[in-house]
Amino acid sequence: MGEVRYRNLVGGEACDARGGGTIDSVDPSTGAVWASIPRGTATDIDAAVAAARAALPAWKQVPPLQRAALLRRYAELLAGASEEIARIECRDMGRPFRELLAGDLPACVQMWHFHAGICDKLHGDTVDVGFTSFNFTRREPIGVIGVIIPWNSPMSLFSAKVAAVLAAGNCVVLKPAEQASCSVLAAAELFAQAGFPPGVVNVVAGLGEEAGDALVRHPGVGRVTFTGSTDTGRIIHAAAADTLKQLGFELGGKSPNIVFADADLDAAAAGVSTGGVFTGGAGQSCIAGSRILVQASVHDELVDRIVEHARGVVVGDPFDAATTMGPIVSDVQFERVRSYLSIAEKEGATLATGGRTGAEVVGLDSSHAGGYWVEPTLFTGCDNTMRVCREEIFGPVACVIPFDDDDDALAIANDTSYGLAAGVWTRDLARAHRFVRDIEAGNVWVNAYRRIHWALPFGGVKDSGHGRDSGIESVLENTQLKTAWIDLA
Ligand code: NAI
Ligand code: MG
Questions:
Q1: Of all helices (H) and strands (E), which one includes residue 97?
Q2: SS3 for 258?
Q3: Which of 52, 79, 288, 385 could lock onto 277 through a cystine, CB 3.0 to 4.6 A?
Q4: What is the C-alpha to C-alpha distance for residues 49 and 432, in angstroms, rounded to an integer?
């Protein structure tokens, strides 16, 4: 049993799992258990869905501006609790505290405000099909929506998805990731204070194959929006078949970050290293630019600069203000990332920098020696057929792949099962537009990387999923259209 005990939110009540089970939550910077979360199961999901369904009729009748006011009130309460919640998230999943406090949490607050603004702007159309009828469409809530999120950005994904679900007038049952549920469970405590009626928002922590699976299969849930791995996306797709659920999927990636010789190489080197994959979250990002494509004529020069950036990264205690990269979230994920370091070696890639893991990174006598540390690691001499260039590693590990010309770069960029994001570094405007058009990905950045915003739709193509988070699009995906025909004859 951990030191701090978090609880589920079901029907407005903070509660333990009905079966009494708990899951230890580990501080990945020490490897020690620091908290416990409920191990919710199908019984808890049933209770949460029942509470959501009970709340739905009255919630649907809340006028849009009142709904907006609740979302705004929640935003204000979240702003007030930001420091505490950032502290919990830092402890629970290891992203640097400074980054969460200055970046993620303020963005979360804005997401709630943004979605508040959409509540009263949802409307259907009138459609003219002839003189003898009046025809129109209405945007209606779907009902109860299941939300399943991963560990890497709990508060951001919780905010983006739940705010959109609520803005559209639905009730929600959320299952956070078992590795990092605490910040979201803490944030769930604010819904009652904001004035949300009990049952409109429910949060049930638990394992994917227990609580997650029960949520996906529940006949009372009309849609599931999921962020996580492509493999789990496939399992959810199959599990949702019986109830014909609507699905939104934001899955994995193996995103190309492409540097042309004409680019501002300083900006590009920073953008593909600390900006792309050697991130605060240790590359545990669906949009990590883990394939760095470099035009051959600047290859050596750029690699030198990337190595310099990588060596400047400060890996260590995520609460330390000097730290720029935290640990890997769990022992399982740590071993997975380490396995790719040996795979790269076996495949004949050249280690340009990094490669050390565990206590070696922070010092054997450090109080953080038990943490899941991986140094920013760069492999050169890679070609796109290698497993390390094709599979999502989800750690601070990048591969450099050289290319000759535009056609070559595009072919390599698109030679992947994934299609989440891409970066292009060039000063050539026509080339920038061609790549934006021709890259198979849901997000393309030019002379920038990993830039996301609550007003911009975010999602993928191919094995990276379908559906969009953020933007008005995500709210619309949480509605269903009704078509009306009124006879005037
Ligand atoms: P996962 O995709 O299995 O977990 C994400 C969420 O789905 C968690 O809340 C989990 O409990 C839930 N889940 C798992 N199995 C489920 C099921 N059968 N039914 C319903 N919900 C289920 O990811 P996992 O296992 O934590 O990480 C494995 C790999 O996935 C990572 O190494 C990484 O490559 C990738 N990943 C990608 C993410 C992304 O944003 N692209 C996020 C997290 C992981
Ligand atoms: Mg944890």
A1: helix 97-99
A2: strand
A3: 288
A4: 47
3 has pLDDT over 90? no
CATH hierarchy code of domain 4-251+464-485: 3.40.605.10
Express each pLDDT in 350-373 by its tens digit. 999 999 999 999 999 999 999 999
What residue's CA is closest to ligand 1, atom 14?
208
Q: Which atom of ligand 1 is nearest to the CA of 286?
A: 41
Dump pLDDT digits (tens) for 59-100: 999 999 999 999 999 999 999 999 999 999 999 999 999 999
Domain with CATH 3.40.309.10 in the chain: 256-454
Instruction: State the Cα–Cα distance between residues 94 and 26, nearest whole angstrom.
Output: 10
**Which pLDDT does position 1 carry in this prediction?**
45
Provide the Cα torsion 46, 48, 51, 55; round to 10°.
Answer: -130
CA dist 469 and 390 (Å) reads 25
| Whether the CB of 333 sits within 6 Å of ligand 1 | yes
Phi, psi of 105, deg, nearest 5? -65, -45
Residue 337 Cα to ligand 1 middle (Å): 15
Residues serving a catalytic function are 250, 286
Which amino acid does the sequence have at 132?
T
- How far is it, in rounded angstroms, from Cα 437 to Cα 440? 8
- Pick the atom of ligand 1 nearest to 337's CA: 32
> What pLDDT is attached to residue 16?
98
- CB 235 near ligand 1, within 6 Å: yes
Crossing angle of helices 105-118 and 154-167, rounded to 10°: 10
Which among 148, 181, 229, 287 is the best mutation to test ligand 1's pocket, defined by most ligand atoms within 8 Å of the CB?
229
- Residue intervals of the chain classified under CATH 3.40.605.10 are 4-251+464-485
- Predicted confidence at residue 61, as pLDDT, reads 97
Residue 294 C-alpha to ligand 2 middle, in angstroms?
A: 36
3-state secondary structure of 5: strand
Write the DSSP assignment of 23-52 as a string of letters: EEEEETTTTEEEEEEE-B-HHHHHHHHHHH
DSSP letters for 287-335: T---EEEEEGGGHHHHHHHHHHHHHH--BS-TTSTT--B---S-HHHHH
- Identify the CATH assignment for 256-454 out of 3.40.309.10, 3.30.565.10, 1.10.10.10, 3.30.300.20: 3.40.309.10
- Expressed in angstroms and rounded, the spacing between residue 91 Cα and the centre of ligand 2 is 7
CA of 28 to the centre of ligand 2 (A): 6
Report whether pLDDT(114) > 60.
Answer: yes
- 140-158, pLDDT tens digit by residue? 999 999 999 999 999 999 9
- The label of the residue with tokens 């609790």 reads 81
